[in-house]
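Summary for the steering committee. One of the milestones for this cycle was to obtain a three-dimensional model of the protein with uracil bound, which we needed before selecting residues for the alanine scan. The sequence and ligand used are listed below.
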Amino acid sequence: MRMYDILLKKKRGQELSERELHFFVEGYTRGEIPDYQASALLMAICLNGMTERETTDLTMAMAESGEMLDLSSLEGITVDKHSTGGVGDKTTLIVIPILASLGLKAAKMSGRGLGHTGGTIDKLESIPGFCTELSREEFLKTVKKTGAAIAGQTGNLVPADKKLYALRDVTATVESIPLIASSIMSKKLAAGAQCILLDVKVGSGAFMKTLEEAKELARVMTEIGNRAGRRTGALITNMDRPLGYAVGNALEVAEACETLRGRGPEDLTEICIRLAGGLLQLAGLCKEKEEACEWARAQLKNGCAFAKWKEMIAAQGGDAQFAENPNRLPKAEKKLFLFAEEEGYIASLNTEKCGEASVLLGAGRERKGDPIDPAAGILLKKKPGDFVRQGDILAELHFSGKVDPTAAQEILQKAYSVSLYKPELSPLIYEDLF
Ligand code: URA
C-alpha cells in the first residue's frame, strides 16, 4: 500500500477503506509517513469530507494507536462527558460529583485551556494541593474509592491525535466535522467509559458557530460512539453567552462550589442538571428525562453532590476547606471595573471576545506550555437580557500586578452591545440526541 495512492483517492473524492485508514494512522504515528503527506490528506478530507463509515474507521484507528484504558475493574457503570469547549464552562466540576454521589463511576480525563476556551485541569489546579497528574494505578484506585477522579490525559493515550491535532493546527485543517469528530471520539473511546454524553456547544464562544454544524457534529459523534458499542448521547447547548458569571480558573471553581451547594446561577445549574440527567438515562438508571433531572437536582439540594465534591478534592490531595470557603482560593492582586456607557438592555455579549479578554488577563495561554494565573479572569455582573443604566458595573476584571489590563478592558467593552429593546434570548439547550 502506498500513501501516494491514498492521497490520490481522497483527492478524487473516493471513499477510503478501513485498511487504508489504518495504514495512514499507524504509519503517521510511527513517524513513517511524513508531515507533508499527512497534511495533504487532512486537506483533502477537509475539502471532500468523509462518509460515516470512513469517519468511524478513522476514529477506531486513532483510538487504537495507543493504550486503551480498561475500566472493567471498576464496579458499576462507567460514565464520561465531553464538552466541545466554551467560556465559563465549569460543568464537569459539578456534573461528575452529582453522578458519583449516585453511585456511577467517572474516570474522567480532561484537558487544559485551548485558545479562548478554558480547561478543567487548569481550573482544578487552582485548588491548592489538588493533583491532576495521577499514574494509571492512582487514577483507578481513586475512582474505586470515591467514585470519581479527574486527571490530565496520561501516558500513551491516542498518540495519533496528539500528532494530527498539532498538524491540523498549523495547516488550517481544524474546522472539519470528520476530523473534529474523530479527534474527540478517539479520546473518548480510549478513555474506556460505557456511557458518553457529549455537550456540543454552538454560538459566538464555540467552535461551531451555527446550529446546523453543531447538529451535524453531534450526530456524527453519537453515531461513532454507538457503532463502537458505547451508549452515547449529545446535548446541543448555547455558547452565545458565557455559562454562569465567572470566567477564569479560581473564579470558576468558586462558582462551581456555590452551584454544588444549590446556590449557583440558573443557567449553569440547569445545564448541569440536564447533563447529569442525560448520563443517568444513558446509564439506564432513569427512563424519563424528567425523572433523571429530578434525581440530579435532588443531589444539589440535599448536599450529597457537595459532600462528594469535597471527598474528591481530598482524595486528589487538595484542601477541601476551599470548597467550604471559596473566598480562600487564590485572589487576584488587582481588580478593575467595566462600566456601562449607555442605558438599555444588554443585547449580546460576544463570548469568544470575553474568553480572549480573560486570556489576556492571564487566565489562559497564548501558547501551549505558557504559565497561567489561577486567580485571573472576569466576573460578569451583567449578561444578555439584563437592563443597565449608564455607569452600572458590567464586569470585574481580575489580574496580577504584572498585567496591563487595557487591551482586555477594550475587548470586553466592545464585546457588550446595548439596545433599547429587551432582546429575545436564544435557548440554553437547543436539542438532545439520545
Ligand atoms: N477538540 C478536540 O479534541 N479535537 C478537535 O479537533 C476539536 C476540539
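Key point for the committee: The pocket of uracil is lined by residues 84, 165, 179-180, 183-184 (CB under 6 Å).
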